Amino acid sequence: MTIRVLIVDDQMMVREGFSVLLNAMPDIEVVGEAVDGRQAVEQVAALRPDVVLMDIRMPVLNGLEATREIVAADAEAKVLVLTTFDLDEYVYQALRAGASGFLLKDASAQQLADGVRVVASGEALLAPTVTKRLILEFSRLGAPKPPTQERIGDLTERETEVLVLVAQGRSNSEIATHLVVAESTVKTHVSRILVKLGLRDRTQAAVFAYEAGLITPGG
After folding, report:
1. Phi and psi torsions of 24, nearest 5°
2. Could you tell me which residue ranges the Response regulatory domain spans (predicted)?
3. Which of 104, 137, 158, 196 lies 20 to 30 angstroms, CA to CA, from 58?
């Protein structure tokens, strides 16, 4: 099944470069491009892509606001944020807005294609450096929110354990190895966690875990 991608960036060279790289993949098709966030929202509604490669710093409407609008509209598209990470202070806000992951702009063609595939499949794409930044950001913001703490009680002990591992950026196979269970069992746990907590995907589950205080700077 071909993964349909929309590329959003205000720089033509970036759009063209990513388009060439992705169209070279047999299972990926670039169905459109947008030069700013407003056009991105319109293109998502018109083209219904599976994945949106979203730049953050753009005119008219930035990637953060565009991501929020796309997610609020219940679009099926997963948003993969493009970032020059060390210069970008919007990692936390973009995840809260509903982004499914991050990809560095200097990623290789293979990393770009793999990132699109991971996000399209419903997995979170959180590099260890991004996870570390998230932990520090939540630590800086202070205590977890009470509503978040109350919702933890809906999870079983094993589901809470799986949630922490998801928040650490581990894949289903890695979690299965760690817990010595079948990968299908992990998938079931993740699905139940999302349903119980009313979350859209693994990335939102990771954000929830940080807000609930399940992950700390030392752990």
Report:
1. -75, -15
2. 4-120
3. 137
Last residue of a domain, one of 92, 125, 158: 125
Q: Tell me the CATH number at 170.
A: 1.10.10.10
Is 0.90 topped by the overall pTM?
no
Residue written as token pair 């509903």: 98
Boundaries of domain holding 9: 3-125
pLDDT higher at 98 or 50 = 50
Instruction: Note whether 85 and 12 are same-domain residues.
Output: yes
Confidence category of residue 47, pLDDT binned at 50, 70, 90: very high
How far apart are the C-alpha atoms of 195 and 140, rounded to whole Å? 29
Sign of CA dihedral 81, 84, 85, 87: negative
Between CA 198 and CA 96 the distance in angstroms is 14
